[in-house]
Write a structure and sequence with these properties.
The structure holds two protein chains of two kinds.
Chain A: H1 14-23, H2 33-41, H3 45-58, E1 61-68, E2 77-85, H4 90-99, E3 105-108, E4 120-126, H5 129-143, E5 147-161
Antiparallel strand pairs in A: 2-4, 2-5, 3-4
Helix pairs in contact in A: 2-3
Chain B: H1 18-27, H2 37-45, H3 49-61, E1 65-72, E2 80-86, H4 90-101, E3 106-112, E4 118-124, H5 129-141, E5 146-147, E6 152-156
Antiparallel strand pairs in B: 2-4, 2-5, 3-4
Classes of the chains: A alpha+beta, B alpha+beta.
Amino acid sequence: MSTSTSQSDPFITKRDRELILATQAGLPLVSDPWAVLGRQLDMDADDVLARFQAMQEAGVIRRVAAVPDHYRLGYRYNGMTVWDVSDDRVADLGAAIGELPFVSHCYRRPRHLPYWSFNLFAMVHGTTREEVEDKATQIRAALGDACRQHTILYSSAILKKTGLRLRK
Amino acid sequence: MSATTESRRQSPIADLNPVEKVLINRLQHGLPLVRRPYAAVAEELNLSEQQVLDAVKKLLAEGVLTRFGPMFHAGELGGGLTLAAMRIPEADFERVAEQVNGFDEVAHNYRREHELNMWFVLATETQGAIESTLDAIENTTGYPVYNMPKEQEFHVHLHFPV
């Protein structure tokens, strides 16, 4: 695309950006969603599909998928488990915790001393509080003596959940 | 800090039929990127394309699914992404939640049971906009924001089997 007007997003073309804007609220629920998008953006349906395949391959799109409200599925307990792990061991241990099948997200993040001393975040979900606590116990065991302290932050309300949005 | 653990705003657990359950499990993994993706999923699951489309529409309308579509990776889009937390007194919580949610850049916002009781994800089109948006949130609400950007990502795969 030679008409690159945006210098801020070097990873995607202007066309990709238009496709993202057209689908950020959702993919059309019709037999051939690419054709609907093609008509909106004056593109061939096969080209639309090819751009989505390319964006998924490049990692711009993780996947095209359903996002449930986990509360409605019975996952009442959404526990953000947070761990204070020695800086020299957090990279290796973080990778190990991320491999645990029940951990959905796992990140290293900065401390904010003295208010916040936790540098490893692992999200776990359960239908009961006991289930989340049992999973946290397994994480605790995997971290061993590298972990100084931990806590679990349960969510008590979803205040907003729109997903990532580009501004139009 | 409030200890009202069970005073949560709860929506009822959805009453799902077997077709809906199988679709929710399958569609969290991602749609095949082919010309008729819903027909492809239908064939995998021994359903009709119309059953798939009707069920997804119904689940979206009922709020069991919050969204069906591409899940973008903000970092790969060249933009900024961060997790941030705030400590808000109970009496001010509703006002501040409304103000924070009013920012388009706030993608998710959760109330959590901790002294830091408001946790939100910020997604911006440029990396530089993270700082300015956090400043704007501090100025609007009058409370400090603790920025906790990821320093390393170990795993991301959210899946809720039903």
